[in-house]
Design goal:
Elements: H1 3-35, H2 37-49, E1 58-59, H3 65-94, H4 100-138, E2 148-149, H5 150-167, H6 170-179, H7 185-190, H8 192-206, H9 212-246
Parallel strand pairs: 1-2
Helix pairs in contact: 1-3, 2-3, 3-4, 3-5, 4-5, 6-9, 8-9
């Protein structure tokens, strides 16, 4: 067996170990989330219950609906709980192919990634979902009385919270790419006009309504996050130039 074959086997063994740790973290997190699935459901449906629209009554129409909903909540909750472990395993797996500076950047970004995701989830929960649910539950209220399927409301909330959490990672991703020299502030500034279109398209995709006000609640924060990313990229560019100037040739 050649050294190249040994290297491939070592990489596969390392990959298997990292995946196993990530899966175990996901299972443990899912088990913990399943214990509290009732409380999690109450948190997810609270914005709908708090609205004075008659939409507080939840129903399920299939025998297995509540069970499958609780399992879905458990896996999503387990993924969120296991996310720090999973991200750390990914970084550690690719670390041998990175320089010391790149490795430090990735490790230092881990807390920021988690905080940005939490900020996006909080924004979606406290700012985005109340007006969106109010529009959905009051539209045509004189025609029919809303009896909401628990699975439908939970799926809606999970989708909104997840994608807004991902959207809030935009400035960090832009800063990291600028730190690695893949993009710079000038390139991102030229892309700004296209990002306006992208932001409103994402607003239409993420929000469950065709109400332009609710879509703007998503698009405007995305535009602000992009501007923050451009500013961070500019700071990253200055730091790179200062570091290169200080490095002896």
């Amino acid at each position: 067996m050649t050294s190249k074959d040994l290297s491939i086997l070592q990489h596969l063994s390392e990959l298997r170990r990292r995946v196993l740790i990530s899966v175990l973290a996901l299972l443990v997190g899912s088990a913990a989330a399943f214990v509290f699935f009732r409380q999690i459901i109450e948190i997810l449906v609270a914005p709908a219950r708090d609205l004075d629209t008659g939409g507080g009554q939840l129903v399920f129409v299939e025998v297995t609906e509540l069970l499958t909903t609780s399992i879905k909540i458990s896996f999503v909750g387990g993924f969120v709980l296991a996310l720090p472990v999973i991200l750390y395993q990914v970084i550690m797996f690719i670390a041998p192919g990175l320089t010391g500076r790149e490795k430090r950047y990735l490790l230092s970004f881990l807390p920021g990634v988690l905080l940005a995701f939490v900020a996006g989830v909080a924004f979606a929960y406290y700012v985005l979902t109340p007006p969106a649910l109010h529009f959905l539950l009051t539209f045509g209220g004189d025609v029919a009385t809303p009896l909401i399927r628990v699975s439908n409301l939970v799926n809606l909330m999970l989708r909104l919270l997840f994608w807004m959490g991902i959207a809030f990672e935009t400035p960090l991703v832009m800063y990291l790419l600028a730190q690695l020299g893949i993009v710079n502030a000038r390139m991102l500034s030229r892309f700004r006009r296209y990002w306006v279109v992208v932001a409103f398209v994402l607003g239409a995709v993420i929000t469950p309504t065709f109400d332009p006000v609710n879509q703007a609640l998503v698009a405007i924060p995305l535009l602000l996050l992009y501007e923050l990313g451009v500013l961070l990229a500019r700071l990253a560019g200055r730091g790179r130039r200062a570091s290169q100037a200080a490095t002896p040739s």
